[in-house]
Design a protein that fits this description.
heterodimer, A: about 280 residues, alpha/beta, TIM Barrel, nine-stranded parallel β-sheet, 9 strands, B: about 425 residues, six-stranded mixed β-sheet, 17 helices, 14 strands, about 40% helix
């Protein structure tokens, strides 16, 4: 089965460039404003959309994404509303792949079967669930794959060659390489080490490899895009959202442009990383 | 999941499950560490030298065995309560004196085991989360004793309400990091400790304070705390020539309770009672995960949790910072589901009353945590006959709570 993600990565490969994966949080700053941001991202240069499902206790995330999730929850965002958000986005865009990223508890409480049904109906293409390692595949990964969703797994600097096959076994869509041992938005990665790691993963799989954690600027994006198939940026975008808010924490007319401007810069970095492929 | 197993003591299975509870719900960055820890613990567990060294320190440094003390006046008190309503009951109450351990609670039993494991694994840096500060103090103490670097994460709210323990940890050379994220209490301290661990995987040992977290922590911490129940078996045999008839302990994460309960799980004549913190009441703000929550996944394990209808974790509330956690160890969740243990709940007010009662009747000021277990004696002891042997785990001493209780009672110190 060819999914939207497969098609998009095939198209990027044909173009000879890496893709840009943007992370934004569903419901931040407010449900409607987060939909406006989502709709504006593909035009600004995002190739794949990663949408955060807010959770009170995001143990792998740094302060920017934690705060973004709490803003969304305070505004009344729920998993049901996040799926509605995807549905509303899909009504306007049937090509851009969209994956949901978050933690297992809200999905577990929603009910795995109900969640998979509703996510597919809404137009979700894949899932990243941070606290479900391969050891817990029976919980959600296997049912999600059966239902036709991609299940994207994180590989990290601590995932050695012995463990990598287990991590890759049920992964589909792409592999998300976490460029640092740490939380989102913290340290800047060592770009040489990242290239070596991407090459190492590629020896084990034909899947595209996206790299994230700590990528904040056009230059970072350009450096990572030289070797990776895609670059993931999250904390820098939710920080742009935060800085655009008024003193009551509400969206302003600056919010959407603040995000799209940064995405344009990052897209430029990604697109200028490699010499144009010969036709 | 309601099938009766051949033994209640055989869990967890190879996937770290007690029935549906437990597991390894952690980020990939931590998985190699969790697997390495499991392997190191398995090796240590089968190494007589490890046990010999632990027993040496338990005797000479911790001060074990802790006494099993017949609480004569407390027993008499509940006999009178029974008599006042025309009964002839009043169980014979024994207190397991864990508050006499070095550092003032049962926490040190577990920390000793983990610190010795950290040394075996060559990890020079130890991190811990703490709520009331008892686990933080125990960790800081053993890190001082063995020359390891110690960082303790503590919610900013708890830092404010447990000032004496914060100072103690600093005296012992630990760095105390006030956690400002989320609700700024124990669950956020645990999140922050996990974030530290994700960041410093290679040199850091995470010393978890209770029977929760990803496998192998629930089983490992239980094993270290089982010294409590094992001693009770021997001591009760010496005192009364038989097994106790019931066990009572407070439950936050549930390590002191599991340590008392586990050696008796396969003795069907022994009734088992855990007591959760009902806070302002079970229909109001509380920290009673089993009585007020439902199964979910947090901090590496599936267990009963306090959460809203969308699976967002709710803040626990209890007068006792040590019980103020929205989850409970997964083995307790399983024991509850299969009916081997019964989980009751005591409110803040009931705990305060019991705090005063034990102080006046026995000259022992209990920690507010185990005051919750003491509070349920009024429902359990008078109904049982005078030859019923009841053991209550006095898991910590109340010195740390004196300023807080004084403030609640309106006394300026």
């Amino acid at each position: 089965m060819t999914t939207r993600l497969d098609k998009r990565f095939a198209a990027l490969k044909a173009e000879g460039r890496a893709g840009l994966v943007t992370f934004t949080m569903a419901g931040d700053p407010g449900h409607d404003a987060s939909l406006e941001i989502l709709k504006a991202l593909p035009k600004a240069g995002a190739d794949v959309l990663e949408l955060g499902m807010p959770f009170t206790d995001p143990m792998a995330d740094g302060p920017p994404i934690q705060a973004s999730g709490l803003r969304a929850l305070k505004g009344g965002e729920t998993l049901r509303r996040t799926l509605d958000l995807v549905h509303a986005f899909r009504a306007t865009d049937s090509d851009t792949p969209l994956i949901l990223m978050g933690y297992y508890n809200p999905i577990y409480v929603y009910g795995v079967d109900a969640f998979l049904n509703d996510a597919l109906a809404a137009g979700v293409d894949g899932l990243i669930v941070v606290d479900l390692p391969p050891e817990e595949d029976a919980e959600l990964c296997v049912p999600a794959l059966k239902a036709g969703l991609n299940f994207i797994r994180l590989a990290t600097p601590t995932t050695d060659d012995a463990r990598l096959p287990a991590v890759l076994a049920n992964t589909s869509g792409f592999v998300y390489y976490v460029s640092v041992t740490g939380i989102t938005g913290a340290a800047t990665p060592d770009f040489d080490a990242v290239s070596a790691a991407v090459a190492r993963i590629k020896r084990h799989t034909d899947l595209p490899v996206a790299v994230g954690f700590g990528v904040k600027t056009r230059d970072h994006a350009r450096a990572v895009a030289r070797g990776a198939d895609a670059v993931v940026v999250g904390s820098a975008l939710v920080e742009a959202v935060r800085k655009s808010l008024d003193k009551d924490g509400a969206a302003t007319e600056k919010t959407v442009p603040a995000v799209t401007e940064l995405v344009r810069e990052l897209a430029e970095g990604v697109r200028s990383a490699r010499p144009v492929a010969a036709e | 999941m309601n099938e009766r197993p051949n033994s209640f003591r055989s869990g967890p299975d190879e996937n770290g499950r007690f029935g549906i509870y437990g597991g390894r719900f952690v980020a990939e960055t931590l998985m190699p560490n969790i697997l390495a820890l499991e392997k190191a613990y398995e090796e240590a567990r089968n190494d007589p030298a490890y046990h010999a060294e632990m027993n040496h320190h338990l005797t000479h440094y911790v001060g074990r065995p802790s006494p099993l003390y017949f609480a004569e006046r407390l027993t008499e008190h509940f006999a009178q309560v029974s008599a006042a309503s025309g009964g002839k009951g009043g169980a014979k109450i024994y207190l397991k004196r864990e508050e006499l351990n070095h550092t003032g609670s049962h926490k040190v039993n577990n920390v000793l085991g983990q610190i010795m494991l950290a040394r075996r694994m060559g990890k020079p840096r130890v991190i811990a989360e703490t709520g009331a500060g008892q686990h933080g103090v125990a960790t800081a103490t053993l890190c001082a004793r063995f020359g390891l670097k110690c960082i303790v994460y503590m919610g900013a709210v708890d830092v404010a309400r447990q000032a004496p323990n914060v100072f103690r940890m600093k005296m012992l050379g630990a760095e105390v990091v006030p956690v400002q994220s989320g609700a700024k209490t124990l669950k956020d301290a645990m999140n922050e400790a996990l974030r530290d661990w994700v960041t410093n995987v290679s040199d850091t040992f995470y010393c978890i304070g209770t029977v929760a977290g990803p496998h192998p922590y629930p089983a490992m911490v239980r094993d270290f705390q089982s010294v409590i129940g094992n001693e009770v078996r021997t001591q009760m045999q010496e005192a009364e020539g038989r097994l106790p008839d019931s066990l009572v302990a407070c439950v936050g994460g549930g390590s002191n309770a599991m340590g008392l309960f586990h050696p008796f799980l396969d003795d069907p004549s022994v009734e088992i009672f855990g007591v959760e913190a009902a806070g302002h009441g079970l229909d109001k703000l509380n920290a009673a995960s089993i009585n007020g929550g439902r199964p979910g996944v947090l901090h590496g394990n599936r267990t009963y949790l306090l959460m809203d209808k969308d699976g967002q974790i709710e803040e626990g509330h209890s007068i006792s910072a040590g019980l103020d956690y929205p989850g409970i160890g997964p083995e307790h969740s399983w024991l509850h589901d299969i009916g081997r243990a019964k989980y009751l709940a005591a409110t803040d007010d009931e705990a305060l009353e019991a705090f005063g009662l034990l102080s006046r009747l026995e000259g022992i000021i209990p920690a507010l945590e185990c005051a919750h277990a003491l509070a349920k004696l009024k429902d359990l002891a008078p109904q049982r006959p005078k030859d019923h042997l009841m053991v209550l785990n006095l898991s910590g001493r109340g010195d740390k709570d004196v300023p807080q209780v004084a403030e609640i009672l309106g006394t300026k110190l």
